[in-house]
Prior knowledge:
Blueprint: H1 14-28, H2 50-60, E1 82-83, H3 88-101, E2 105-107, E3 123-125, H4 130-143, E4 148-155, H5 158-173, E5 177-185, H6 193-209, E6 214-218, H7 223-227, H8 237-240, E7 247-250, E8 274-278, H9 286-291, H10 304-312, E9 314-315, E10 327-328, H11 349-374, E11 379-380, E12 383-384, H12 394-399, E13 402-404, E14 410-412, E15 423-430, E16 436-444, E17 454-456, E18 484-488, E19 497-501, E20 506-507, E21 517-518, E22 523-525, E23 532-534, E24 536-538, H13 545-570, H14 575-579, H15 582-598, H16 608-642, H17 655-679, E25 683-687, E26 694-700, H18 704-727, H19 737-761, H20 765-796, H21 803-810
Amino acid sequence: xxxxSPFSVLTKNYQQILALAFAVKEINGNxxxxxxxxxxxxxxxxxxxxxxxxxxxxxxxxxxERFVPNYECDxxxxxxxxxxxxxxxxxxxxxxxxxxxxxxxxxxxxPPVMHDKIPGLPFYQMAPKEALxxxxxxxxxxxxxxxxxxxxxxDNDDTGERFLQMVLPEFSRSGVCFAFIERSPKLTxxxxxxxxxxxxxxIHDKIMEGKANVILVNGESYTTMFMRWLPYLSEQxxxxxxxxxxxxxxxxxxxxxxxxxxxxxxxxxxxxxxxxTIHSNxxxxxxxxxxxxxxxxxxxxxxxxxxxxHAFSCVFPSIVLGKVEGDICSGEEKLENxxxxxxxxxxxxxxxxxxxxxxxxxxxxxxxxxxxxKQRTGVHREGLWxxxxxxxxxxxxxxxxxxxxxxxxxxSFDKDGExxxxxxxxxWIFSSNQSLxxxxxxxxxPQAPPNQAFIxxxxxxxxxxxxxxxxxxSACSKTCYPGSRRQMKEGRPFCCYKCIPCPEGKISSQKDxxxxxxxxxxNYPNKEHDVCIPKAVSFLSYEETLGISLACIAVSFSLxxxxxxxxxxxxxxxxxxxxxxxxxxxxxxISLLLCFLCALLFIGQPWKVTCLLRQTVFGIIFSVAVSCxxxxxxxxxxxxxxxxxxxxxxxxxxxxxxxxxxxxxxxxQVGICTVWLATSPPFPGxxxxxxxxxxxxxxxxxxxxxxxxxxxxxxxxxxxxxTVAFFSRKLPDSFNEAKFITFSMLVFxxxxxxxxxxxxxxxGKYMVAVEVFSILASSVGLLGCVxxxxxxxxxxxxxxxxxxxxxRRRK
Length: 811
């Protein structure tokens, strides 16, 4: 029990003395452990001061009668090991002295910080690795998504700085930011109280001003005593009156302690706190042992009367001179009635460490004694005993110690002298009378699989009343929900950001993502940009209105073309049909019929065969049709020239010329298509990127150059035909065929010149629809302009279809 706090006695630490006495009593009463050997102990106060700590340590290694270090004149005074201390700096002072005598020290509090100038000191840590605790704290923060926290450390030695060096980089890499990092002063002497209070006021105001609802505190056993001052230290009255609650996260070194005059202070600020504690249990019989303690029935306890007076705020008349002021201690007060910050009936983590430390020394002595028995040395007629110079050998047995204590927990050290154990996550719950209930809500187990190393039970946690039992939120910025991403704010920590929607084509399916991701091929974002939806397969299908409409138009005009062909075949012996070169007419009509039908190749799902035939069949058939038009136009011109006296053009007029024009022009297009198919033919493919919500099944051209060569050659033939027809439009002809061809070529060229920009600006099935429409429109233009006037005369005005009329028209 620390007795010289600048404020008062810390009654909470009295349980650690009881744990020590209880463990020694159990061992001395156990015939299986150290038989015929009686353990004893001395307790010295460290006074939170290096000078008095060194003095107390020297007293431990001296004779009881005189202060002569390492002088043994009493066989009953055999210092075997030292258990202490609760604070890291005190442990370092003690270890510095004990290193000279090779006496082991078992530390039940926080370990000291070792520097390069400090040699390897002989101490054993009755607590697990600190790195394991920090990993558990990080897991807790990430589990609840507390990424904006405040940190308070003790500014007493290098322990706080070591904590920051270990925690800050790892926490930052995991996405945790720090709203503030404050250092609370060390509580030492009364002359420094003013400075302590000023620093406390600064810390309180920093907590109240910020948005951080989670405060991580790393300190010593008495740190909570200082924390209880914070609500009363604010320099700003409005902040002092605020009832804002926080989630306090305490490290394992801290205990909930209070001094006497804090008895009536509100402790609600710690309600719902989460504490990482070393795993502890109540040994059998400890509760009864504590209940039996009272000043009247306890012998040899030099602490109990002082503890009793401070714990119950009373005095014993026998030790007070003069008039007694205040309540009189009866000695029959009940320890279980004390508030939790003053004393707990259940064994705390630090007391459990003391208990295990005593048993660790006992088992090490047992192992050493058995070793000496085997060597037949060191055997006394009254039992086993040891020379003081032999206790350095105890280190070997301490390093390899391993046993189960009375509760069944395993106690052993790793290669670094640290206890092999885990941490419990404890939820502090307070009632109106300051009674403390510790509820285990999780644990950190280093020996469990990685995905099960940290376990937390959210439903078992009681939060501070300020949160109305809703899980607290602690972040610098609002949560960015799926469909948005975080954008950092300039000049602020990376946890401070604003949320912006995901750009087109990207999604975010989780909260607080730094960047949006693209959907895999075959998927596209929904309207909220938080889910990828499979794209629909799209092509110009017979099952949709556009596809069936174009197919019906193509079939209808192919039937009309067949009807026109039938009319011309039926009236093949009439002057009108004979005058228009029957073979060219039939070839043109057949090619137009095939042009209408080839449009059907563009409708339906693309397959390998249809992709090979689409553009090549279309290009060849249209070239034949345009070649026929060119041949008809050329024939008209040559026929007119041949009628002039002495013209040599008569030798060129005839079927041979027309056939030559059609074959030569068509075969050239066939050659282009053959090269195309041989080098880089069209093939079926899927375009997953042009349309956001569709996968377009289409025919890839293979070679775009060859595709445009086919179109360009067809356009060249059309332009030549249009030019020839245009210049011959005023030639005297019975049926003005040159004019009709001019109109047809004008329509044809207009359609295909407008096709190219329309085609390039369209996407998906609409590109195919544009090409089908161009095929049908140009074919209809040729059919209507060239053959409609002739069909009109043949069917509706047969009286004009005679030789006399032809001759009269020419004259």
